[in-house]
Amino acid sequence: MTTTTPARVPAGADRAASPAPSASGPRARRAAKRRQLTAAGVLMTPFFALLVTVFLIPVGTAVYLSFFSDDQPGLGFGPERTVFVGLRSYAAVLTDPTFLGGLGTVALYCLIYIPLMVVGALALALLLDSGVVRLRAFAQLGLFLPHAVPGIIAALIWLYLYTPGISPVIELFAKGDITIDFLGVHTVVPSIVNIALWSNLGYNMVIFYAALQAVPREVIEASVVDGAGPVRTALQVKTPLVRASIVTVSIFTLIWALQLFTEPMLLSQSSPMISSRFSPSMYIYDAAFTRNNYSLAAAASVVLLVCTIALSYGVTRFTSRTDSEEAR
Amino acid sequence: MSAADTSLLRPKLLGRATVNVVVALSVLYTLLPVLWLVLASAKNRDALFSSDLLSLSDFSFLQNLKDLFAMDDGLYGRWYVNSLLYAVLGAALGALVSVACGYAFDKYRFRHKEKLFGLVLAAVMVPQTVLALPLYLMASEAGLVNTFWAVFIPVLFNPFGVYLGRIFARGYVPDEVLEAARVDGAGELTTYVRVALRMLGPGLVTVFLFQLTAIWNNFFLPMVMLSDQDLYPVSLGLYQWNSSASVSPEYYPVVIMGSLLAVLPLILAFVLLQRFWRSGLTAGAVK
């Protein structure tokens, strides 16, 4: 591994390598350097062994599988052969209306979920930071609580709250003569957004709140002296100062949103509106483990991976560009 | 902030009331579903579908609890133990591995260091669903499908923990301490185990907690890898029972009770280790 090969480092520039005074000289220094590299190797090997086996090889396998396919020889006799099929699986995935539909669903889900999440969590953090909220510690703990509820159980709770007959919510609406089908054609995506929002709102609020606490008090005092009201202070002084965490939260929320799987998988047990290929992740699961079409599943995986990387890269680029524009 | 400054910042009475109402409504939004779970866990099957949620006339909490552990020959107890094994052992081992690597990234210099670190960060981005099929094929090649290891080994991998580990090593372990240990003639690894690891304690707990949550939540990987019900974690088990519930409704009360019990360990961990994860969130997000 790279870490165990001796590195070429100017001796004086080495921050960590400092030879013991009793054994100075280039030879002792080299020995100390070697000891350090060995230590680095020992400390890093377990993690990089995992990285290779459960990350690099699987990603490589997914790419490989997407270009090959098991072809049945004519009439189904003889051994199966694995043949190179080039981009055939990609063509199959990208022209499959159910996959494209899944991409569309996730796009819609992201468009509703991410702005709601980021704005909601930031707004709550700003309110808590404004110093006028009573029982602040209790409010924080209450908002954070859903993070301790596993995703599948959050989905279970909300599924029951969406189910007529069990749900007190639907009953409440019924008393006002309103009938709501939370799992209907137009409501199913917002219903899933609600589950994700409920699970993660408090967690992201805590991240924003921590960032807001790090804003120097002098900056806020200065804006008060300038006559800015609390709303203006929050929006024009505090918010720009926590940009970095807004970007981080947006990217992590995006990456998680693109993987949408657990909630629709559970809701599909009770709603005919959710097909087995509702989202790209469900499509991959269906292709791999229901239809046993590995090359199709692999191609869909690679498409999802490329979308994830491109979008996260896009967000990073977009925000760093606006950063430099503001600096000018 | 001093009292005088705060009074300048305070909005008028109406504004304060609005702020408090908004926050209170948000807290109700997050708490009420959990409260529903608690109340519903005390209902028997018929009451769940018919009666008022708040009436105590049909209190059957203990009966539900008994049913839960009796259902399908006590399968739920097994699942719970499995989940604890996957999550506690996995998170403990995973945190040690990640933090050791993050520490090495901060304290030692070697070639291609930042490129390797970039690879670690890239791994954070890759969706688990992309890795699942290849992992399944590899596990089946190695004869590990449908065993404890098929779930346990992949969950140890936590690149975000390495990122946090590097930040914590920079913050908590001053380079001077390592130099002093070297002057004393202590070996690098001895120094790590005896000195640095102790200083990294809070960081280690933070990474442990993050990973504990992730593994306890894990659903996709066990679903792909396991077919033997005895190896299921709670999440997958409840998913399966819930799918049976539409056919045989006697599963509803046990699924609800099972969900309630499955929430407890994480709440307990978060409350007990509160001061650690707060510092971890700050370190991970502000940078």
UniProtKB/TrEMBL annotation, chain B:
SUPFAM superfamilies assigned: MetI-like
Q: Among its keywords, does the record have Cell membrane? A: yes
Q: From the Swiss-Prot or TrEMBL record, state where the protein is found.
A: Cell membrane
Q: Which residues cross the membrane?
A: 21-42, 84-105, 117-137, 143-164, 204-226, 251-273
Q: How does it sit in the membrane?
A: Multi-pass membrane protein
Tell me where in this chain the ABC transmembrane type-1 domain is found.
Answer: 80-273
UniProt KW keywords: Cell membrane, Membrane, Transmembrane, Transmembrane helix, Transport
Q: What family does this chain come from, according to its entry?
A: Belongs to the binding-protein-dependent transport system permease family.
* Record's protein name: Carbohydrate ABC transporter permease
What is the native source organism of this protein? Streptomyces ardesiacus
Q: What is the lineage of its organism?
A: Bacteria, Bacillati, Actinomycetota, Actinomycetes, Kitasatosporales
